[in-house]
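Database export, one record per block. Field names are fixed; values are copied verbatim from the stored entry.
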Amino acid sequence: MAIVGLKGELIRLVPLDQTLHLECALSWFNDPEITATIKLNLGISRRQEELFFERIATERDTGFHWAILDDAERHIGFIGLHEISWRNRWATGGLVLGERSAWGRGYATDAVRVRTRFAFGELNLHRIEGHTLNPAMKRVYEKCGYRHEGVARRKFWRDGRWHDADLFAILAEDWFASTRQSGAMQDQ
């Protein structure tokens, strides 16, 4: 029986499974082009990634991690909510699309929308934020209603120099307001 997961218009988010998703993780997180704009950019060993999968298999108190599947059930990336603070009801988001053929096709936008819906609708979080130096991810955040809150100067070291990172965030009240507004527009 297949795991249903969280469904979007273009994608489905399913829990990570080491037997299904480890090889993609090793390939993608050891590809400098894919990791150029994410926090993890030094590569990983098989054992490091196996330990990560083992840790998240039981972790629900500080994070949620999913594989992103496209409409053909092809594994195209990963998305998560990290560093959850239940007291303050916020989390940091992360996303990587490892399949180059999935880039620029709306999958990341749909995945962020699904993750945001889950965070506010199911987890009752108040805020989701993320830092990025990826221009494509900036556009994804904007399409999903996240606001640009500022620039973290010289946050990431890449290619022998420091890079600024843009901070984007969305609050539950803004997300619920936009959801009601889009629902009202669809009813007309």
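Remark 1: Residues 120 and 172 are 6 Å apart (CA to CA).
Remark 2: The mean pLDDT is 91.
End of record.
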